[in-house]
């Protein structure tokens, strides 16, 4: 508790919300009871009021502590504390390295012996700060005697320990989270973070959208294969670099996001169809100075965000439209045309087409003027 107060004093914090994880929970609970004027809120995750080692005989406790000291850090099995990541060999090695660097066997033994004596049950009814108690639904790592014995004969589980805390702290909220990991940042951290944020602020940040409305642009250099064969690899490579640099300047100018390159063309997204149209027209006009012609296609639709990248049917539609464009032509779907009504962009109807692999018929329009 002295350490917590020293840190708060150093940063000028009069009152703070404390979050106690594992053995940090009893200390935070004791702080909240001892210094109510400095505790704005209390959050307890994966923690307990009384160490289960208190339920062991002295011989059992000494035997377990000796085992931990002799086999440190391998005696702490990540498959129990962090089951979602225990199958990852690189994580297991990082886990061992973390424990090994955090404490020598002797220091670990002293810490675990001290932890075995923790008992703050008597202070729980005196806590007046708003309190949130969290535990993960399927976690097996508890602080009861079973955790110390690495056996299943003691009934104490993370759920029972959380229920005890919530029952004995006045007004405490008890929340069950999905997952089986004891470590808060492992497994599914978002539900935990959401509960903490809502408890402290009254609102919860909505999850990042996994679908967005975007205007997708596909471009392709016309006759690139024949041109590459005529120029040779080195000259073609130099020309392609100049083309890519030019396209990227226009994407930046019109606030487009490069999704990727497809062969000698580009895939980009825009937050508005007019910017996408103007960018495509500017690219088509400027690449002529390099002796190149492009075809381009645009479609606006829902796209999925996967690992920060766009994917989905809208991408395929834009690609199919681009494939139908003539040299130096920008084709758009009727969706794009309808969305830019009222702008200065004008179109010429190109007819109705079937797009490979896509249902129905699609009206396509060529950009006439921007």
Summarize it:
It contains 14 helices and twelve strands. By secondary structure, it is an alpha/beta fold.
Low-confidence stretches are 151-155
What's the structural domain tally? Answer: 2
- Write the H/E string, N to C: HEHEHHHHEHHEHEHHEEHEEHEHEE
Cα Rg: 31 Å
Major beta-sheet overview: 8 strands, mixed
CATH homologous superfamily designation of the largest domain: Alpha/Beta hydrolase fold, catalytic domain
CATH architecture of the largest domain: 3-Layer(aba) Sandwich
SS field, number of helical segments: 14
What descriptive keywords fit this protein?
single chain; 370 residues; alpha/beta; Rossmann fold; Alpha-Beta Plaits; 2 domains; eight-stranded mixed beta sheet; four-stranded parallel beta sheet; 14 helices
What does this structure look like?
- The protein has helices at residues 2-11, 24-34, 58-70, 78-81, 89-102, 105-115, 145-149, 158-168, 189-201, 224-231, 233-253, 273-286, 313-324, 334-339, and strands at 16-21, 39-45, 131-136, 173-177, 211-221, 257-262, 265-270, 294-306, 309-311, 329-333, 346-354, 361-369.
- It has 370 residues and is an alpha/beta fold.
- The chain folds into 2 domains: 2-201, Alpha/Beta hydrolase fold, catalytic domain (Rossmann fold, 3-Layer(aba) Sandwich), CATH 3.40.50; 211-369, Alpha-Beta Plaits.
- It is elongated and about 85 Å long.
- The N and C termini lie far apart (67 Å).
- 32% of the residues are buried.
- Residues 151-155 have low confidence and may be disordered.
